[in-house]
Amino acid sequence: MKTDQLKDKKVLIRVDFNVPLDNNHAITDDTRITKALPTIKAVLDAGASVILMSHLGRPQKKLNDDGSINVEKFTLMHIVSHLSESLGNDVKFSPDTIGPKAFDLSLSLQPGEVLLLENTRFEKGETKGDEDMAAMLAKLADYYINDAFGTAHRKHASTYTVAKYFDKENKQLGLLIQNEISSADRVLNSPKRPLVSILGGAKVSDKIQLIEKLLDFTDYLLIGGGMTYTFIKAQGGEIGNSLFEIEHIDLANELLAKAKAQNVEILLPEDSVCADNFAADANSKVCPSNEIPDGWMGLDIGPAAIKKYSEVIKKSQSILWNGPLGVFEFEKFSNGTFDIAKAVADATDGGAFSLIGGGDSVSAINKAGLDERVSFISTGGGAMLEHLEGKILPGIKAMDL
Ligand code: 3PG
Ligand code: MG
Q1: Torsion region of 67: left, alpha or beta (phi above 0 gives left; psi -120 to 50 gives alpha)
Q2: Which of 10, 143, 149, 229 is most buried, taking the most CB atoms under 10 A from its CB?
């Protein structure tokens, strides 16, 4: 990132501060804030002032009964004190995203000062990529930086359209996005081999495009999570009451055949930890994944699968992980995810490069206390998937407009 041209400039930075909050509006995982700090600090150190903007949640989808915005729930005010503390700088807050208050506060901002605008999604124009909203945001600053990787797959006013109002010399990508791109490159372009991809999560349908793309370059594909059972069912297994997507049975078979044709070793868990109910206190037992009795459902990969997957992970030189392997929020069904996290950390200690993305896998790594022992934690869920699928993300493309 170049900063020598930023002295005395007002720099508008799109960050992704869409962080999880508890019922008291306290931040439960601040990864996205921490990871945005280097860019903000570099811009401040260059003698500029900073105007930050982000969305938080999906406020337009959860309006109050009278149609107004639920400000109490979705205001970015909730993160101001945490941000000020992390940054070591008293962050000012504009209760407007655009409009007179945002304009006046931006205008009076001095070099070294930071202003945070209210939730960009309080404006209806944000998700529509509205030109008027983008023009008003652009009026606040001399320079634009996009560092919101988690939202870079959205073509919104603050992530995409606004960039059009700055010429090429007055906009760039931030450090967080640059690091995300170079980390993904280490997996996508001539990775150290073997490369293992670990995919979990509930649905095959969310991961189809990624699986297809991965088959072109991964050596191993380890499957876990709810999507396992669509594959097992496709192969004629008995899956009891496990989650599966009937409409994707054929596709699952096609993916398995394609993997074989391309010499990719695709592994399904040979055993599962099954539950008689979707609940933390359900009864549980280990069953072969293709012999799950009626009334039972697979909620985690079993001990034999953990052993096999860990062996593959430990002999790999590059590791890509997206999606938990079981319902790790329930302790009884968390071993798969946490043991695989441990195997990934051990392999990384042994010299492998590991890239982890997707909100749930990141929170599993954090919960296991292993975040320092993996190579790179992505701040993107959907954005990371789309980037790995080979799509050009609008937030990145906007820099060339
Ligand atoms: C996310 O957490 O997925 C990003 O912040 C983007 O949010 P969105 O999925 O609501 O667009
Ligand atoms: Mg999302």
Answers
A1: left
A2: 149
